[in-house]
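Issue: copy button drops trailing tokens. Both records pasted manually instead:
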Amino acid sequence: MTKLAPSILSADFARIAEQIAAVDAAGADYLHIDVMDGRFVPNLTWGPKVVADLRKLSPKPFDCHLMIVEPEKFVDAFREAGADIITFHLEATVHAQRLLAHIKSLGAKAGISINPQTPVELLKDVIDDADLVLVMSVNPGFGGQSFIPRALDKVREARALIDAAYADCELEVDGGIGERNLRQVVAAGADVVVMGSAIFGTPDPAAAIAAIRSMLA
């Protein structure tokens, strides 16, 4: 079954405990937490302290997506804060294999992400070291962007790469996913779908998750 990872970047932080409780009860599989540094992407979000505080609100796996330069300097802190999956960008470090191995040594699952313009084939030499591959279907940095149609081809390419390597690796897709393209993304091979405004941008996030589940049934 396809896993759902609501992105709290789109949540109302004035009601964050209520909104997290709602998606938890509705059956979210992961909570997706976008970490941005204003350098790798043109936006700022939060650091380990906020993740640690959010950790008190939910038992769900925290899927922390580090959109930051030099992620190797910060993965330990995010793991200590409660991250269960730590994903960094291939474009942000020159030692991807080393960092994947280090994240695993911390007891977390190790993920690697690629931007829309990055060829999937660059993941070939590290696919066996990854627990998760995240294909961005928008340029990272802001919620509410439109899905880039070419991303469907990249999802198919990533699915083929994972399957050809017999890798024990989930394929996650993030960016601009909603009712219009959800089935296409899943059909292309996604195991995990990140959705932000399609869930938290609605009056009832729990009902939104129920509707999404019905679409995938």
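Record 2 (pasted manually too):
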Amino acid sequence: MEIGKSAVFLDRDGTIIYDKGFMKTPDEIELLPMAGEAIKMLNENGFFVAILSNQSGINRGMITEEDVEKMNRRLVELLNRKGAQIDFITYCPSTPEENLPCRKPNTGMVEEVKKKFDIDMSRSFVIGDKSSDIKLAKNIGATSILVLTGYGKETAKEITPDIIVPNLFHAVKKILLFEKV
């Protein structure tokens, strides 16, 4: 019996790009150092790479879904320049108060991925800078990795992930070591 693919579910703001609050334009998208190289390493090692992002600015009326899609296209463009590919991107417009099933740490965005792709959650990872990312990993049975970029340093005081690393590049290096064990 063939087992599903290992996936890495990435948060966007504070993990791959600088978190600048409620960004409104693609020009604000700026990769964190070594983020493109890290994702390229995941690609080269056969991981399914998905971005799962809470984007409450939509339901708050601060940005539109079209704005988020333009920013995501810009992000993909910047990553492609580094030789990195994203297999799937999704986002949730829910505010914390609405707490729709798609809002992390709820599993709705992951369920969306599972409907379309054969992913083995027990061999997968969630990387992010917020407690919602770490809790999502627990909720889907994946390994949680907290990056200390974005809100990571504050998050490290409130929750215990499986792994804590300085940034996405170090997270990927840990994953690649983990996979060889």
